[in-house]
C-alpha cells in the first residue's frame, strides 16, 4: 500500500511524507475494517465514488498525521535519511528512495507509533490509540455514546537530544558504555552527534540505557 504514495512527490522530503502517510493509511484502514465501518463514507472528505478512494480512511488519518510529520523531521534531522538515499526518475519526473533507506524510515515510523501515551488511565501505544478512537467513532455513530472527542489523548513531545543528554553522552566512558550495553560503534555515533550542533536520533532502547548512567556509577 505505501509503495504507491511516493508517486506524486517532486522532492525527497515530500516523497518521505507521502510514504509515511501510506503507512498511516494502512493503520487506519485496518482499524476501520476491524469495527465494521464503511470506509467509503466519510465526513471531512468527499463521498467515495470509486473503490480506491476511501473517504473515512482519509478522515481518520487527519488527527494522526503529526505522527508521520514528526517522524519525517526526525529522520532528516538525525540523518537517518539523506539526499543520497533518493533518486530521480526521468520517466515521470518524481523522486523515489532506496529500499534500504525505506527500511530505516519504517523503523522510525514503527518506533513513533509504538511510543506510549497516557489515555483514560492507561498507557497505550499510538497505533492502539488509532484503533481505540475508531472504536469510539463506531460507538458514536451507532448511538451508543453521545459525544466524541478526537483532541485526546494529547502528546507530550520532548527531544531526545537535549543539552543534558548531550552532556551525559560526552561524559560517558567506554567502561560505562560497556556496562550499559552500548557498543563501540554506537558510542562513536553518539559522541560524534553530541558534539554536532544539529539534531540527532537516539533510539528508545539506547535512551533507556542512558537513563541508567547514575545507577551504574553509584
Provide a descriptive summary of the structure in words.
The chain is mainly α and 218 residues long. It has 2 domains: 140 residues, Four Helix Bundle (Hemerythrin (Met), subunit A) (Up-down Bundle); 55 residues, no CATH class. It contains 10 helices and 4 strands, in the order H-H-H-E-E-H-E-E-H-H-H-H-H-H. It has a two-stranded antiparallel sheet. The protein has a two-stranded antiparallel ribbon with strand order 3-4. A hairpin with a 4-residue loop joins strand 1 and strand 2. The longest helix is centred in the first third of the chain and has 24 residues. The model has no long low-confidence stretch (mean pLDDT 85).
- The overall average pLDDT, rounded, is 85
> What overall form do the CA principal axes indicate?
flat
What is the β-strand count? 4
Give the termini distance in whole angstroms.
50 Å
Number of separate domains: 2
Work out the oligomeric state of the chains in this entry: single chain
Largest sheet descriptor? 2 strands, antiparallel
The CATH class name of the largest domain reads Mainly Alpha
CATH architecture name of the largest domain: Up-down Bundle
Q: From N to C, what is the helix and strand string?
A: HHHEEHEEHHHHHH
Radius of gyration: 20 Å
CATH fold name of the largest domain? Four Helix Bundle (Hemerythrin (Met), subunit A)
CATH superfamily of the largest domain: CRISPR-associated endonuclease Cas1, C-terminal domain
Strand-pairing-aware structural class: mainly alpha
Strand content: 5-15%
Please give the share of residues in helix. Answer: 40-55%
Q: Taking strands numbered 1, 2, ... along the chain, how are they ordered across the largest sheet?
A: 1-2
How many helical stretches? 10
Unreliable runs:
none
